[in-house]
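CHAIN AND CONFORMATION:

***
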Amino acid sequence: KIEDIELPGFLSIFNENMVATAILMLFFFGIIMTVLGKGYFVDHKIILPTQNFFFYIMTTSLQFAVNLAILQLGVRTFVSELTESFTGISNTLLPGAVPGIDVAATFAFGSPNAVTIGFLFGALGQFLMIGLLILVKSPTVIIAGFIPLFFDNAAFAVYANNRGGIKAACILPFLSGIIQVGGSALIATWVGLSKYGGYIGMFDWATVWPGFTVIMKFLGYFGIAVVVLILVVIPQLQYKKDPDGYFLVVEDYDAYAARK
C-alpha cells in the first residue's frame, strides 16, 4: 500500500503529503496558467497588471495544498458531528435514514498520498486521451477537468489503495482519466452539447449517463420514465441483497465489518 512505501534520498520529501501536493499543484497549475498567460488573468480582472505572475502561480498552488490539508484534517470531526446531529432526524422524522455527504469526506479515511496519486495518474490519463482526440482529429476535444480529477480519481485511489495497494491506486485513476475524456467527448458530440462549450465530465457522466441519454433520446418521455425506474430499482436490489447490512454499514461500520 501507499502508506507502506518510504521513498529514499531526496525523494523522501514526497513522503509528506503537504509537500507532495504542493509540488504537484505547482506543476499542474503552472502549466495551465503559463499557457493561458498573464494577459488572460489581467483581462478577466483576476490579478492586477502590476502583480507578479510567477508568485501568483506559487501562492495559488500552495494555497490549494493548504486547503486540501484542512479538508483532510477536519473532515473526521465534520463527519462525526454531522452523524451525531442527524440522530434526532433518523430516530423521529425519517426512521432508518442516514446522512449523505460528499465523496471528498473519504479523503481523510485513507492514505493522504492516495489523494495526490489519484489526482496525478487521473491527470496523466486525461492528458493521454486529449492527445489521442487531437491525433484522430475528433470534432470535440475535452479539456482536462479539475473537479473530476479530485472528486472522481482521488476518491478512486483512496478505495483502490485500501483494496488493491499502490498498483490499483495508480492504474484505476489512470483508466478513469481516459474514460472521463473519451466518454465525455463521445456523448457531447453525439447529443450536440459540444457547441455549447462544455460537459460535466465526471466518471458517471462519461459512462452510465451516455447510456441513459440514448434511452431518453430515442424513447422520449417513456425513456425518461425508464431511467427513473432504473434509478429507483438499483437501491432496492442492493437492499434486498443484504437487508441486515444495508444500513449497518453506515450506522456501525465495526459491527458491519465483523460480519464479513
Summary: The chain is about 70% helix and 0% strand. The chain has a mean pLDDT of 84.
